[in-house]
Write a structure and sequence with these properties.
CATH architecture: 4-Layer Sandwich
Number of helices: 8
CATH class: Alpha Beta
Strand content: 15-25%
Number of domains: 1
CATH superfamily: Ribonuclease Z/Hydroxyacylglutathione hydrolase-like
Strand order of the largest sheet: 6-5-4-3-2-1-17
Oligomer: single chain
Largest sheet: 7 strands, mixed
Distance between the termini: 12 Å
CATH topology: Metallo-beta-lactamase, Chain A
Bound molecules: zinc ion
């Protein structure tokens, strides 16, 4: 079986396993300030399943559109399913999950795990230039006022239901002896991660972002690199690729440099690989 993965920024990926297309999250039509993708959501014509980690707009935004255009089935929390039902996806093409489910998606065995969301707004994480959100915004307002207004307009139009996380989920996908773990917000449930580890993931797509990491409902105070290292130490994957660490909505976001995570990942015995926007790479053991 040939499998490829393509990164669309934030935590959105397109997985293809032979002829089966599975989207991991569905945030494609990004802020105009973000680096461009090769296609917009309306142009997506192939999808069999759309897995959503949680219901915030930067994960679920285009799930309904993609499912309507392709006939795909959406898998996610009850709130995720409600959001896409509101957008016209029929009831027989949504599968609400809470964690604990095992589903067969064509050649892919999917296991669903309960997860948690990072703490937003607990503290201000300064960017590499030491600016807080207000300073970043003021800089961009001065440098490119039109782009700044466009980014703020993008964030102003978020539907109310997409401002709630709906209860995050994490997923383990397995085909042909290859196991891929993915979650989409810097939070974790130790029991879930230990259960995933028992399957020995080949690749873990680990989510990190400027929010405060959430370890079993408690703020993780040892920093972002420490949190990724902690997750890798439990999961023991062969390889780690970061996601949601990119500059997906400037001026509010910035790219978190991968090198700062390498040492902690290596300490778990895994290799940190860096993947770029729009890059397609093959998944092999
Ligand atoms: Zn979120």
């Amino acid at each position: 079986m040939r499998a490829t993965l393509e990164w669309f920024g934030t935590a959105t990926w397109r997985l293809e396993v032979d002829n089966t297309v599975i989207w991991l999250d569905a945030y494609v039509d990004r802020a105009p300030t973000a680096a461009p993708l090769r296609l917009d959501a309306a142009a997506i014509d192939r999808a069999d399943w759309v897995l959503i980690g949680h219901s915030h707009f930067d994960h679920v935004a285009e799930a309904g559109l993609i499912a309507r255009n392709t006939g795909a089935t959406v898998i996610g929390s009850a709130l995720t399913c409600e959001i896409v039902r509101d957008e016209g996806v029929p009831a027989d093409r949504v599968t609400p999950c809470v964690g604990g489910e095992t589903l067969q998606l064509g050649p892919v065995r999917l296991r669903v795990f309960a997860s948690l969301h990072g703490f937003n707004g607990l503290r201000e994480w300064p960017d590499p230039r030491g600016r807080d959100t207000r300073a970043r915004r003021d800089d961009l307002r001065r440098e490119s006022p039109e782009l700044c207004e466009a980014a703020l307009a993008h964030l102003a139009n978020i539907p109310e239901k997409q401002r709630q996380d709906g209860g995050p989920l994490a997923y383990l996908l397995e085909w042909d002896g290859f196991r891929l773990f993915w979650h989409d917000t810097p939070g974790m449930v130790t029991a879930s991660w230990e259960a995933v580890a028992a399957y020995r993931p080949d690749l873990a797509l680990l989510s990190i972002a400027p929010s405060t990491p959430n370890l079993d409902g408690v703020p993780f105070e040892s920093g972002h690199a420490g949190f990724v290292a902690h997750m890798a130490a439990i999961l023991k994957p062969r390889r780690v690729v970061l996601n949601h660490h990119d500059d997906w909505c400037p001026p509010l976001t910035w790219h978190m440099e991968e090198e700062g995570f390498r040492q902690g990942v290596q300490a778990s015995g895994a290799v940190l690989q860096v993947r770029r926007l729009n890059e397609v790479f093959e998944l092999t053991r």
